[in-house]
Amino acid sequence: MKIAVMPGDGIGKEVIKQAIKVLKAVENKYKCKFEFNEVLLGGAAIDATGSPIPQETIDVAKSSQAVLLGAVGGPKWDHFPGDKRPEKGLLTIRKEMGVFANLRPAILFPQLKAASNLKDEVLGDGLDIMIVRELIGGAYFGEKKRVAVDGGYKAWDTIEYSTNEIERIAKNSFEVARRRNSKVTLVDKANVLESSRLWREVVAKVAEDYSDVELNYMYVDNAAMQLIRNPKQFDVILTENMFGDILSDEASMLTGSLGMLPSASLGEGNVGIYEPIHGSAPDIAGQDKANPIGTIMSVAMMLRYSFDMEDAAKDIEAAVLKFLDKGYRGLDIMQPGMKVVGTEEMGDLIASEI
Ligand code: NAD
Asked: Where does NAD(+) bind (predicted)?
């Protein structure tokens, strides 16, 4: 099982180190072997080679089943031009790996309910929603133009989707739902947008092959409201690129803790890129203050989606819960009466629970 490891910049390096500790614990328990190949990405790659993504990084990623990524960027490279910036490395690796489905869980652990802005009665025993966002189509990639008219301008961006693009991500989201609570909500604007009406047709057709999964539909404006009013009604939310961009940020804040949340970006087959949703956090880098749980939970997603190791994925999630149950907290999720531990110790303690 080959993993391309890209720690990147700032706290990326620190959190990746903890995730590897956890994978080593999984190796021990399951008598399996991961091959880790560490390569440069982002600012670290610019410093060493002049490019945010050297060819070697692309080659190693393409010969691996999974990419484990920390975070890229920092003030040192902020003045660099667009295609020489660390973020260019991130966009390129997503494109090169052909990942079209971005999976962003919004998980609120019952132990951390106080971190959410929502009321106790809305949260119940915690939250677990999975947003599946189409990543490489829609308005961000369709035709864009600006023309001069009447002394001013007229500009447009085009939402374009083909049957194939919708079909592949629909299958993806039904597969994901099968591993969860078997419910998919397609979020769109089918009362106004033709592209949304095509999404509905194609997704309904794909659903015929997944009769064990419930499918329902919701307009995006209503979904934005329902996420706050009654988030527990959702299991998997399937949506196009721009709606997913907005809703996944909204949903992540229901959980109140940036350092805790993982993500996976999947392509055809088992290929995937796994990374925490946070950035390189230059303000706390090198101080043993970063919370590695988002990266550790990303590794659980890697085992589930790229390596089909569901039991090991559940072990990692259970290890994080046990760690929290024992009263340990990172600085960012500190609560009165809890034991604060640094990045390294968090990694050690969670790995030891496996
Ligand atoms: P950020 O996510 O790095 O940090 C925002 C705040 O959250 C900071 O106060 C930080 O200390 C805190 N934080 C983030 N992750 C944490 C963790 N694991 N544990 C504890 N606290 C944590 O966002 P930013 O400050 O807007 O951006 C910093 C740099 O990261 C920029 O260069 C930006 O471009 C880059 N960035 C990269 C990615 C990525 O690699 N995917 C994503 C977002 C931002």
From this structure: 74-87, 279-291
